[in-house]
Amino acid sequence: MPDVAVSRVEHFNAAHRLYVPEWSDETNANIFGKCSNPNFHGHNYMLIVKVTGEPDETTGFVIDLKLLSDIIKQEVLMRFDHKNLNLDTSEFKQINPTAENIAIAIYNLLRSKIAPALQLKITLYETERNFVEYPAS
Amino acid sequence: MPDVAVSRVEHFNAAHRLYVPEWSDETNANIFGKCSNPNFHGHNYMLIVKVTGEPDETTGFVIDLKLLSDIIKQEVLMRFDHKNLNLDTSEFKQINPTAENIAIAIYNLLRSKIAPALQLKITLYETERNFVEYPAS
Amino acid sequence: MPDVAVSRVEHFNAAHRLYVPEWSDETNANIFGKCSNPNFHGHNYMLIVKVTGEPDETTGFVIDLKLLSDIIKQEVLMRFDHKNLNLDTSEFKQINPTAENIAIAIYNLLRSKIAPALQLKITLYETERNFVEYPAS
Amino acid sequence: MPDVAVSRVEHFNAAHRLYVPEWSDETNANIFGKCSNPNFHGHNYMLIVKVTGEPDETTGFVIDLKLLSDIIKQEVLMRFDHKNLNLDTSEFKQINPTAENIAIAIYNLLRSKIAPALQLKITLYETERNFVEYPAS
Amino acid sequence: MPDVAVSRVEHFNAAHRLYVPEWSDETNANIFGKCSNPNFHGHNYMLIVKVTGEPDETTGFVIDLKLLSDIIKQEVLMRFDHKNLNLDTSEFKQINPTAENIAIAIYNLLRSKIAPALQLKITLYETERNFVEYPAS
Amino acid sequence: MPDVAVSRVEHFNAAHRLYVPEWSDETNANIFGKCSNPNFHGHNYMLIVKVTGEPDETTGFVIDLKLLSDIIKQEVLMRFDHKNLNLDTSEFKQINPTAENIAIAIYNLLRSKIAPALQLKITLYETERNFVEYPAS
Question: Do F13 and E40 count as a contact with CB atoms less than 8 A apart?
């Protein structure tokens, strides 16, 4: 029987700035445009965490979505919600906080908290019109 | 040439209760929390049915979405809309009506009504923030 | 200076049945159709609570939306979320749980918890396509 | 004949911090919670500008929504989009950038750019679940 | 006791062209831009019909939303859905099919079908970002 | 390390008619129903363009979404927005403008503008309830 995927949607609000420290301010402005504003800007991020596996025969759950929501709150929202991603977190000290890199960081934060038999996928909306998925397939 | 997928979105409203009959009420309450309220609660389910195949050379359709909508109404909405999934349906007499199990039941109801050359996938939103997919890939 | 309105969106999931106890089952079925299914059906209700008044000169708040959210959780969600509105609540023992009557009940539950100088308005979505407002203006 | 209202939806992304300079950091943290994080957080603001009046007999327009969109971009988005509302704008040097105060500021920026015979109303979503209206009626 | 408002959301898809027949093609293009493309373009219109009054003491309904939906389908959708508003309807032979004028036409089509004691208001979305209301208040 | 997918959402409004020129008007009406109205109808199309690959180590971008948006505007929106797909475009002179065929046409317009190392996928919503994906997997 094929696997089932279950997904939980969560939200967080954060400030960030796209910025490569090895580059001059002028190069950062050329490459990242207004996303490199030195005083930061911010987003309401919408996060979708998908967990794929076999439903338990008795409960019918792949994973209890209440439990998944608690794990996301503990591991992701407590770190990133109402924070400045560049200044207040350890994840983006050396890494540019693009949507791609935030999605990879969230995957890495969650992977060890989900049973290894279950697959994990992250979808992150930076705005209603820009979003990323990791892993892509 | 790669296949094309077409999807139709439908809605139904139903009551349910998460409940394993072999368990005591206390165990059901511990595992399923307020989702096990003995008097039921309910949802506006959003259902997405995806059909994948080769578009017909003349019409340009993989499947006529009006026809697909009629099949979903006949096979799924007439069974589940404005019903109590635990009490009013045969599908969830022995099986816990989790979103996972409802998606699998909908797949099984529709599979024989869609031409075998076409692939079928079900996505079911229980709330805006909890949804499932079957098969997962 | 004109007043400012602030709104908070919350959600709850409940079962209900439209039903007038003085009527026969046949009359209930004729008037309320499948909404009168004896075993109940359910909805994801979306609730918007609007509070109107003058923003505080120092804080800039009409009302702290975190506080408003807590009041709604305490007064409305604890009563109605994951409940059967007909069987599990005192509000709909004698009154038909139409969206209109649920909105009026929520207004009455919240009115005394909000400062009298502030105006209150309830908007309640029963589905994405059916919603009510009280008071209307 | 009654008036007609036309509305245009726009979006901007900004960083901000709720903060009263006359208060200690401790008081700011007590009153504004995580919204007072010193390194800022941010939002995708959704802005709805409503203009009410009589449609022109020939064109059928109350106001050309393309023109209204251009005015909003010129007056509001160029000031606030991808900015830090506390540091990068003159409007919130002395005023706390709550959603209420941002809506009032946007009203004041737009009022003189819209013909006096037309009424103006601002709706501002800070998140999907928190929004404000000015003037309230 | 204040009145209650109930609203029903419906959708229709139509082609149109903004065009004043007394004007030259050049003037039409200058004023209406690409909305005046001679071969038409089209929209998915979202229509919200709001009816305001006193709920019936027994049923709890201001108006049965199933009945309201049927009236809208009969009077509006059968006229406008999958039609060319300029060519296929009598309403826009002499009148420019702006969102403002379509909302007024819908109001006029529905007004006599709704009991006179009930107030009526039309909201029409031409796109997700452009919408109109009639009457405005 | 797995690939990352980034997506950009754009919108366009167009008129179309489903129609096979080799068929009689009667056959077209039988097969395509009201979608074959000779005077056309129209839609607000929502287009999602997904690009999959490895993020650049320095910028953290798979592709700059501002650049992707510009490519979509240049190649797709300038061709299709506010146009009659049957009459105003070369793509649908011989091919029925079903959602399936529009998605394939958009894929073909964009494929050569995106670096060959990157995968491309098109999702096209014709209405909120009907959408297609190409390639399907």
Answer: no
Torsion angle in degrees (nearest 10) through CA of B23, B26, B29, B30: -90
Chain B contact set for A2 (CB, 8 A): 134-137
Cα distances (Å, whole numbers) of residue B130 to A73, A106, B120, C41:
15, 19, 21, 19
Domain D4-134: CATH class, spelled out? alpha beta
Strand-strand pairing, F83-84 and F4-16 = parallel
CB neighbours (10 Å) of residue F10?
A: 17
Q: Give me the residues paired with residue B76 across strands.
A: none
Helices (H), chain A: 25-32, 65-72, 78-80, 85-88, 99-111
Token pair recorded at residue F24: 């009689």
* Overall pTM surpassing 0.90 (yes/no): yes
Pairing mode, strands B130-134 and A4-16:
antiparallel
- Residue E137 is predicted with a pLDDT of 84
Residue in chain D lying closest to A17 (CA) = D82
In b/e form, how buried is each residue of A66-89, taking b as 16+ CB within 10 angstroms?
eebbebbeebbbebbbbbbbbbbb
pLDDT given at position D19: 95
- Whether the CB-CB separation of C14 and C44 falls below 8 Å is answered with no
Residues of C within 8 A of D29 (CB-CB) are none
The reply to whether residue D134 touches residue C4, judged by beta carbons under 8 angstroms, is: yes
Query: Using an 8 Å Cβ cutoff, are C96 and C86 in contact?
Result: no
What is the pLDDT at residue B117? 97
- Of A80-84, B120-124, D19-23, give the lowest mean pLDDT range: D19-23
- What are the domain boundaries of chain D? 4-134
Tens-place pLDDT, residues F74-102: 999 999 999 999 999 999 999 999 999 99
Facing C41 at nearest CB: one of B35, B42, B127: B42
pLDDT digits (tens, 9 = 90+) for F104-122: 999 999 999 999 999 999 9
Pick the closest to residue A99 from A47, A24, A52 (CA basis): A47
**pLDDT at C86 > cutoff 90:** yes
Distance CA E22, CA C135 (A): 46
Report the candidate in B10, A9, A132 with the shortest Cα–Cα distance to residue F128.
B10
Partner B, chain F 83-112, Cβ-Cβ below 8 Å: 95-101, 103-104
* Closest alpha carbon to E60 in C6, A14, C91: C91
What integer pLDDT is reported at residue F137 of this predicted model? 84
Within 8 A of C31 by CB-CB distance, chain E residues are 59
Interface touch F59/A128, C-beta < 8 Å: no
Nearest to A33 by CA among B84, C64, F69: F69
CB F49 within 8 A of CB E98: no
Say whether pLDDT at E36 is over 90.
yes
Q: Look at residue A106 in the predicted model and tell me its pLDDT.
A: 98
Is residue B11 a contact partner of residue B49, using CB atoms and an 8 Å limit? no
- How far is it, in rounded angstroms, from Cα A82 to Cα A11? 11
Q: What is the 3-state secondary structure (H, E, C) of chain D?
A: CCCEEEEEEEEEEEEECCCCCCCCHHHHHHHHHHHHCCCCEEEEEEEEEEEEECCCCCCCCCCCHHHHHHHHHHHHHHHHCCEEHHHHCCCCCCCCCCHHHHHHHHHHHHHCCCCCCCEEEEEEEEECCEEEEECCC
Q: Which residue's structure tokens are 């796109």?
A: E127
Query: C135: cis peptide before it, omega within 30°?
Result: yes
DSSP-assigned beta bridge partners for residue E52:
E5, E119
On the 0-12 / 13-18 / 19+ scale of CB atoms within 10 A, C101 is buried
Res D4: pLDDT: 98
Nearest CB among D39, D43, D87 relative to A84 is that of D39
**pLDDT of B3 above 90:** yes
> What is the predicted pLDDT for the residue at D29?
95
Per CB-CB distance under 8 Å, the chain A contacts of F66 are 33
Q: Which of E55, E58, E119 has the CB atom closest to C100's CB atom?
A: E55
| Res A48: pLDDT | 98
